Amino acid sequence: MHNHTEIDFGTPLRTSTQEVTLEIDGESVTVPAGTSLMRAAVDAGINVPKLCATDSLEPFGSCRLCLVEVEGRKGYPASCTTLVESGMKVRTQSPKLQELRKGVMELYISDHPLDCLTCAANGDCELQDMAGVTGLREVRYGMEGANHFHAKKDESNPYFTYDPAKCIVCNRCVRACEETQGTFALTISGRGFESRVSAGQDQPFMESDCVSCGACVSACPTATLTEKTVIMMGQPEHSKITTCAYCGVGCAFKAEMKGNEVVRMVPWKDGKANEGHSCVKGRFAWGYATHKDRITTPMIRKSITDPWQVVGWDEAIGYAASEFRRIQAKHGRDSIGGITSSRCTNEETYLVQKLVRAAFGNNNVDTCARVCHSPTGYGLGQTFGTSAGTQTFKSVEQADVIMVIGANPTDGHPVFASRMKKRLREGAKLIIIDPRTIDMVRSPHVQADYHLKLKPGTNVAVISALAHVVVTEGLLASAYIAERCDDKSFQQWRDFVAKPENSPEALEQVTGVPAAELRAAARLYATGGNAAIYYGLGVTEHSQGSTMVMGIANLAMATGNVGREGVGVNPLRGQNNVQGACDMGSFPHELPGYRHISDSTVRGEFEAAWGVSLQAEPGLRIPNMFDAALSGSFMGLYCEGEDIVQSDPNTQHVVAALSAMECIVVQDIFLNETAKYAHVFLPGASFLEKDGTFTNAERRISRVRKVMPPKAGLADWEVTVKLANALGYPMAYRHPREIMAEIASLTPTFHGVSYEKIDQHGSVQWPCNEDTAELGTETMHHDQFVRGKGRFIITQYVATEEKVTRKFPLLLTTGRILSQYNVGAQTRRTENVQWHSEDRLEIHPHDAEERGIKPDDWVGIQSRAGSTVLRALVTERMQPGVVYTTFHFPESGANVITTDNSDWATNCPEYKVTAVQVMPVAQPSEWQKSYATFNQNQLDLLQAASKKPVLADAIK
């Protein structure tokens, strides 16, 4: 098992081909050139006292506690800023050093309250530790002189307190904000004795640019910055390593506990995805797990107009199973299906698709990844031969040019954004392709070299124009293409993109991107060194989503930017286990590992292992399930950890389909929007309540560890096992590790994956099998593409059917915001609402003025599908003709207005392009009024849930 007592080496690790040998306290030590004396000493097991140094930040040399003696040198150099030299003889302890350090410590303590016993950091304070190490026993300066004891605390941030009286001005928080996070929100204000840390221009934290990532809190060596939970609950007494359940970055955290209560979540230094950094969601917004809205008992009802009835597990599961069997007897085997979750673990998702195929006897299984990244799977599968990101997040440190397309990393994938910003501050170049001016275009110490501000829906035209420049200006990586790509498809593609109609000039009218700017960006990408592409839902959620993914792959192959560190094609996954949900066979046409259900060899393996015969025909996708429900042939649904009513497009269509079904079983932790249409509610478990694994956007499989018992008594995998057994298909797993062992045995890319290996090493990356390294594959397509030769595919631009007209003159696009997550069911139940308490419509001042819209006005947004009302945010971030909103609050109804258009290859909905009209209004839309009534009614029915005694369960 990993050693969880983390050593702080004082300064960051240096890598070098040269080694240096020196002597520290009489011991010989060998370290890489460029290492500090402090780190070399810690390597040798000698801890030099320190306050301003920590190994996540560059050395600063301000506290003077780490002074050492070097033979033949005058004075006492600081070991954090002094580099090792060959043959050096260093002493870390002597009477003189002891005296100097004690003197330094005495000065610190003379302006520091001596309230250790009642201080929140008692037991976790580096100042306290150093007072002990230096042997400080008295403070000669008295405590009467000028001091900061009465400085006022800043309690504005909901998650941490800033107490300037405790500040020792070590600068660690300021440096963490700059180096680790890249927000530059903190400064030291005042000079000399008056120096204190401040947020922004001496503002309260909540009014500053601070994004509450917690880097400053982690870096602080005293109680100056302290989590409010620690102030309230005291120091934790044990910890467990787990994986964050928010976005697809997959940060590793230490859940620091008292008993089975979480005191705080601290980013884990050894987590490969985050290396000790975090964002406001993972670090602080875990309180939803113990929120009073959690439903912890199974419930059933005959009709959605009935009050809920609280029942025992066996009765709820028995009822669900008998309803599913009744519906199949009446409407046929294919009349029921399941939806897997991108929030649940790999093991749980695998069981749900197994349940559908083996116990329901059909392939009607789908997942929300369909509505976000299915084009990634299809597009990268067609071109490279496998459907996942090609690099690790760390690989961005080797990139010279970074292209971000239709993604907003600072809001959607903040910890990765911090890595990216660090690389940009070191000099990498940045190209952004986005209709909006996102933060990455211009923020402290980051400036995009090119922002191609395209019109929504014209992605494919832009990528073709970029390729046109590469081909016609002789910028192709010819040797790479000749060696690694399929020649015939390359020639056809080259001839296609070289056509005059694909030139930046010809497409300027379509895309709105100035030709000169596009040409310059193409040259930079093709000639600027290692070039990496990162993209998000702004690529996939279009009617040409799959075409665009193939266009991106084409461009990367044409310039030789796949198959080594610092390059690649990387989809940024929106949810913690979107990648895993796809890997686990959550699609109607694919078994685990992306193998087609019609392949009789593959099917044979699963039939032998599962003891059933499987259907060879693909089942229904989610949109087909809805259509079949309305036509009366699909009547029962098992939906685990997915809120299709709020997150799928054209809400009214979704609601009509659910209302037509006879039995909907929802397994979740809250009564979400979908559960309001359910007949059986099975309480789910949060990520803190179960064991399993998540797979992040870099194909990294990490452990999720149970830190508290499930509030409802069962983890999600146990509920699915019970349901399978009730349906007459026996499952007998005792622990998720047995489920992973089954996945590994049946999935070639997972043959080498096991809990033992993950526990030993922290994480592994698929493909992980006999043909890969022990820990799997960091960089995909290293010597050749998975499919053999890379395949170029012609990407003809086809304008979306969603056109602006006089009636609908604006284009609406959607996205995320940092403090909220997806449908908001979790984050809306935390203090994160202090940053974002409602969805807003962002609109350009010119469009607002034309319509008489002022900031904060209520505006009606109408599309061909429906209408809703939001408050306006008038901002220059938008371009004229384009409006934008987020979709985190159910009452905003963002998806009431999105249409039924979808990607030609995968049915992924076109969320990003909806023609709308926007006008000032005085009251909510009709949909919002009926939603408010329905919602209140459902909450009343939940309130009225009758508890009838269930003796059988009580006895068990």
Which descriptors apply to this entry?
30 helices; globular; alpha/beta; 16% strand; single chain; 6-stranded mixed sheet
C-alpha Rg, in Å?
29 Å
Q: Helix proportion of residues, in percent?
A: 25-40%
List the strand order in the largest sheet: 15-14-25-26-27-12-13-37
- Sheet with the most strands? 8 strands, mixed
Poorly predicted runs are: 949-956
Strand content: 15-25%
* Average of per-residue pLDDT values: 89
Number of strands: 37
Sheet/helix structural class: alpha/beta
If helices are DSSP runs of H or I spanning 4 or more residues, what is the number of helices? 30
Task: Using the alpha-carbon principal axes, give the shape.
Answer: globular
Distance between the termini: 36 Å
Short synopsis of the structure:
This protein is of the alpha/beta class and about 950 residues long. The chain is built from 30 helices and 37 strands.
Structure in words:
With 956 residues, the protein is an alpha/beta fold. Helix content is 30%, strand content 16%. It is built from 30 helices and 37 strands. The strands form ten sheets. The chain has an eight-stranded mixed β-sheet with strand order 15-14-25-26-27-12-13-37, covered by helices on one side.
